[in-house]
Task: structure prediction
Amino acid sequence: EVIDIAANLNNMVKRLQRAFPQKIIFHHEMDSCYLKVHEPSFEQLMIILLDNAKKYSEETITLQMVEEEQVVRIDVIDKGIGIPEEAQSHVFSRMYRVDKARSRKTGGSGLGLSIAKRIVDRHNGTISVKSKEGVGSTFTVTLPKGGIA
Ligand code: ATP
Result:
């Protein structure tokens, strides 16, 4: 179905903010942005990324939506513990967790990002991460404006 992801993200941020100790900021240029996505999957995808930002960072989380030529880009930016270079290519694999010791207190099964990847694939989009240990992480999703093929 076609949904306004700007409105969807706005509502989601409002809802999640109550459960997040840190501030979530949502930047977007367009007031509305219609995309052909499966709404429950899109919400699950964004909640996985925002929930990770919450778990692995204490500072303000920035959610940003940018319209590009062929795609809409969504960035989830945190200033948390970051992910070591050598681990970055594995985080989208099932059950992969960066470091048992540091992850134990936050719980989790290492499934979140593999589910996120599957949802993005189903929408013919992309997901990637840029991160630096001790500095923070940016997860970037792109979704084609054409929608699900
Ligand atoms: P869950 O399945 O509950 O989400 P999880 O967080 O362990 O548990 P993933 O979401 O798949 O699983 O993340 C995999 C690993 O990637 C995590 O264990 C964590 O080490 C690392 N990671 C994910 N997001 C971040 C982030 N924003 N900052 C730092 N590390 C992260």
